[in-house]
Structure prediction request, 376 residues.
Amino acid sequence: GNTENTKLRMIRLVGLLLLCTARHALSIRPGLGAGSRAHSVHRVRSGHRVCAQEGGLSWQEELENVLSLETAQSDREVLVKDLLSRSSEIVGDVAEAFRSGSLGGLVPPTSKSGKLISDFETVQRQVTEDLLPQALKPQILQDAAADAASAAQEASERGPAAVAAVLQDPAKALELVQQEAVNTFSRTPTGLETPPYTPLRSGDGYEVREYPSYGVARVQMGEESATSALAGSRSFRALAAFVFGSNAQSESIGMTTPVRTDVDQLSSSMSFVLPSKYSAATAPAPSDPAVRLQQVEGQTLAVAEFTGFATGGEVERQREQLLAKLRRDGVDIPDGGSSYTVFQYNPPYTIPWLRRNELAMSVSLAPPTTEETEPL
Prediction:
């Protein structure tokens, strides 16, 4: 009946996926000798070799590593051969999943694919609950049209100078293009400096970090603007112009990550982190008076990661969840959570469900007791 046909289609789909993956992986370097199979005692986990004797990987993990951009081609070829040798196991797992009516065994929630599905569902919620209702408001559409015209005007004025600054070093420009192509599919961008921090403790879905002081270029966004896409777009363009040469030395500062948005009860601001070679006192002065250089003081932050878009609705959901967890764990929140910071790590063109965002709150940890500090 229909159930049997569905099973057969799924089994064929898995087989086709394996064959297509094998063809892609092996076509890049044809002519692999039979001796390469001897290396299959090693498998790959997150870009690092892992001995099969240490427990090996499930076929789901092997398939994820085959499709990962971080996996070396030689390792990918070995993994594909191993997957093909496990075809009967895979077909059996698929058939059992349909017999039991549960697909959890095919895509475990803790696997990369399971997380990807969860992240995709998060983005769907953000679009349907947050973005679409806002986008359909007439005033939003009018403001967006006006902002697009303003952006085009700014690009015509600042664009040539920014491009010239980047092209001063053609090799660096090519490297930047290649790097950004990879970052389209990366949860955490590569090649960009980020502020250092020291992890202090982990909780359920959050981490407490100690950040030292660092410099930022900041634009004040005003009241109720933290989650406004238009206000964020204007602030981002002003900061990007500063980074790409709109400053007293016409110097390309260099991009960093994450973009930082600070919110309190009265106002909000967006900041670009300065590269570590600068402080607020030594960086070139911005040409735009709206951009100010400031030094962020050292902070102890409780940080929770989320994916997709940092919409107003999603930020508020994340804030409430983090507050509840911190209160449950007895973590001191000096201002009760009325102020918070949003870190956004990815360029605008990164695939939405691969985007990395973080909601952070200032916390105070009690110093360790004598019993915790004295050796046993």
User: Anything to note?
Assistant: DSSP finds ten helices and eleven strands in the chain.
